[in-house]
């Protein structure tokens, strides 16, 4: 950790202002395809490299004391890609879940999933269920894998869940809908990072990011390192979060 950043993280939670370290960081891991194309390699090699980066950043988040890391791995819109790319990504995700089970357990990382498991290949949904169960008791870092995830889809599924339990002529409230979303116990994201040069959310955590700080980086995801995350945390620590109020 750089000296400047360690000073910031030390000051977190010591009173006198908001914590300098975000509790929940979300990352839109974008740029795998372009990383590969630049090297005249198939897009799949960019995804493989991107997964390596994801593991490096999970370790960094653990080390830095971040409590929740949400990783956007496959959106509800990514099914529009070629059958070959979709199949590769599903296979890569499935293999990762099996292979890294030990890594998550040894580091006492809780793995959760957001998104619709019903739309996933049975094997991937099963592997996600297994890793969730195996790591459910860990309370250090929580890694939220957003797979077949779309912010709009999450809201619609949440409203439908609420409608099923609705009593009488009750109206929907923000609190009631929040409780019906995929992971109601997770805090809302404080910081959303997008790599790869685009400045859009692409349907990521739409409800929860209402007051998240947004950080955009031109670097392609496979090139990201721990020091890029530290830069984003410095950006976050310098923000003045007002939530619509006055200071
Ligand atoms: C992000 O990288 C990973 C997924 C969407 C699965 P991309 O595959 O979108 O990479 P680019 O944007 O084409 O470079
Ligand atoms: C967002 O990236 C989805 C993930 C990182 C999983 P995309 O590459 O799919 O987003 P767009 O198409 O550029 O908006
Ligand atoms: Mg992209």
CATH topology: Undecaprenyl pyrophosphate synthetase
Estimate nothing, just give the exact number of structural domains.
1
Q: How many separate helices?
A: 9
* Residues in helix, %: 40-55%
pLDDT < 50 runs, ≥5 residues: 9-16
Q: What sequence of helices (H) and strands (E) makes up the elements?
A: HEHHEHHEHEHHEEH
Describe this structure in words.
The chain has 247 residues and is of the alpha/beta class. It has a single domain (21-237), classed as 3-Layer(aba) Sandwich (Undecaprenyl pyrophosphate synthetase), CATH 3.40.1180.10. Helix content is 44%, strand content 14%. The protein contains 9 helices and 6 strands; from the N terminus they run H-E-H-H-E-H-H-E-H-E-H-H-E-E-H. Strand 3, helix 6 (122-135) and strand 4 form a beta-alpha-beta unit. Helix 2 packs across helix 3 and helix 4 (83-99) runs parallel beside helix 6. The longest helix is centred in the N-terminal third of the chain and has 22 residues, at 43-64. The structure holds 3-methylbut-3-enyl trihydrogen diphosphate (2 copies) and magnesium ion. One 3-methylbut-3-enyl trihydrogen diphosphate binds at residues 28-30, 72-75, 78, 198, 200, 202. Residues 29-34, 74, 78, 89, 196 line the site of one 3-methylbut-3-enyl trihydrogen diphosphate.
